[in-house]
Specification:
Blueprint lengths: L8 H19 L3 H9 L3 H14 L2 H29 L10 H4 L6 H19 L7 H7 L3 H12 L3 H28 L6 H24 L1
Helix pairs in contact: 1-2, 1-4, 1-8, 3-4, 3-9, 4-8, 6-7, 6-9, 8-9
């Protein structure tokens, strides 16, 4: 989980690619394209890593996870705005399509769905043979499409769409985080604090090496 949520360049590249795909799916009102964007988005791991940090009381991992989430949100909104500016004039009014309308109605039911999916996702991570269920969780609770719709709303200067879809993103993220915190706490992950710190140090060294190599090139 720490490795998959590591704030590397390729992590953010996958976030941007997934948001571009999701925004295009929203603009053409194509559910299959939106679902495809969820399958390639790695942001779910950042939210789970955030919960793990709280269980371990590891503030370095906490800060790392928060930074990864904030940076992902920024890149997502920026990419969605650019895509909307480029393609919205060719797709009609996106504010009237199903993909937008379904994501501007934040409700407590969405939190319940997010909480259940968070339970499934975090439990699957603790059981290696269940790891293949994570894409299904990503579909059940979409973090990327609400961000795409927020970007669309910002590009169109439609503040209702932007605010309500971003609220849905926050609801989904909170549901996943709370559920995964409960799972990690009940499974006594707090005793793995040393292993987690070693994993963070390992990933940090890899990131630094990648930066040095990029500077040399």
């Amino acid at each position: 989980m720490i490795e998959n949520s590591s704030p590397r360049a390729d992590f953010f590249l996958m976030v941007v690619l997934s948001i571009v795909m999701a925004t295009l799916g929203v603009l053409i009102d194509n559910t299959a394209v939106v679902i495809g964007s969820m399958l390639i988005a790695p942001m779910l791991y950042s939210v789970l890593s955030f919960s793990l940090a709280l269980v371990l009381l590891d503030w370095k991992l906490f800060g790392r996870s928060c930074w990864s989430i904030v940076k992902s949100v920024f890149f997502s909104l920026l990419a969605a705005v650019v895509v909307t500016f480029l393609f919205a004039p060719h797709t009609g009014s996106p504010s009237q399509n199903f993909e937008v309308i379904s994501r501007i109605q934040p409700d407590v039911v969405w939190f319940a769905v997010a909480f259940v999916a968070g339970l499934a996702g975090s439990f699957a991570l603790t059981k290696p043979h269940l790891g293949e269920t994570l894409p299904g969780v990503a579909i059940s609770v979409s973090l990327i499409p609400p961000l795409a719709v927020s970007g669309v709303g910002f590009a169109l200067f439609d503040w209702e769409i932007m605010i309500k879809s971003f609220q849905l993103f926050l609801i989904n993220a909170a549901g996943i985080a709370l559920a995964s915190f409960a799972v990690f706490f009940l499974m006594k992950f707090q005793v793995e604090r040393r292993a987690a710190k070693q994993a963070v140090k390992k990933e940090q060294k890899l990131i630094e090496k990648e930066k040095e190599k990029a500077e040399e090139d």
